[in-house]
Amino acid sequence: MSNVPFDHQQLVQLAWYKMPFGAHQGKFLSELPESYYVWFRRQGFPKGKLGDYMQIVADMKVNGLEGMLREIRKNTVNDH
Predict the structure, then answer these.
(1) 15, 30 in Cβ contact below 8 A?
(2) Which backbone phi and psi does 2 adopt, to 5 degrees?
(3) Is 28 in a helix, a strand, or coil?
(4) Residue 69, burial from CB neighbour count under 10 angstroms (0-12, 13-18, 19+)
(5) Do 73 and 28 meet the contact criterion of CB atoms below 8 Å apart?
(6) Are residues 38 and 11 in contact, defined by beta-carbon separation less than 8 angstroms?
(7) What value does the mean pLDDT take over residues 25-48?
(8) pLDDT at position 75, please?
(9) What is the rounded distance in angstroms from the CA atom of residue 40 to the CA atom of residue 11?
């Protein structure tokens, strides 16, 4: 992932992004347990947008910021 900060549209997309597979399929990335992210950090995140987003959410969780994604969902419409 580049070091360019996210813009508003990208944060909205991240807030609404759901896990596409596995035991947590269909859950918002911000709602996945921290232990899930710890496992992926050890094993390696998926390639592409999903992996990029998971790394960002993992960092947000470590810093106590995942609530921001819930607030974004409360205040936006999922049109992605």
Answers:
(1) yes
(2) -75, 170
(3) strand
(4) buried
(5) yes
(6) no
(7) 95
(8) 92
(9) 21
